[in-house]
Amino acid sequence: MIPLWADLLAVGLGGVQGALFASGFTGRRLDFLGVAIIGLVMGMGGGIIRDLLLNAPLATLQNNWYLITAVAASLVGMLLAGIFQRLNRVIIALDAVVIGLFGAFGTSKALALGLPPVPAVFIGVCAAAGGGILRDVIMGLPVAIMHVGSLYAVAAAVGCAVLAMMGELGVPLTAAAATAVIVTTVIRLLAVIFDISLPEQRALHRRKVAVETAAIPTIKPDPPRRFRLRPPPRRP
Known about the structure:
Structural class: mainly alpha
């Protein structure tokens, strides 16, 4: 099962990242409580969704330290927002690590409870993206995972799939989870740095229409002939 310190690390990093997002967001006016709530959602949302899908007791409510860690991390992120906002690379890296941790822990717990690899990967992706989805819903924003952007759920899915395959090959779950976190983090960072994203649906539709239209034979009218008036012949 997931060590308590590792789960608390994910909760803490998620709380800091959520508070930083809320503090730097200019589209809504949030007070300290609002920022703290967003931090709690980001820190604990992924674990709650994971346990609900697994029909398991909510780990975040079985120990005092989850709420304490999430609240403390939210306060740290809120108070140090001015410093962190200048370190854009740190925030991006933090976001990638949080995705990797929640994805790996979700898949690991699912595999430990006896789920097959494919559903376990699904649980991991839901845990990785769950906090961000809840954050966007609470703040009344378009859900980021549903729109064109840097690879988010895809990075988590690849990392979780690597974990599940390594588990099938008999690799210890701890080593597989660590590898999954690294894989997810690297893919996410590369996607942000090089602006890699999945193709836009409308672009694919336009391309398909263009291909289908090109296959239809068309009759092009002959270009109109230009008649030139010849000058009258000269009389001798």
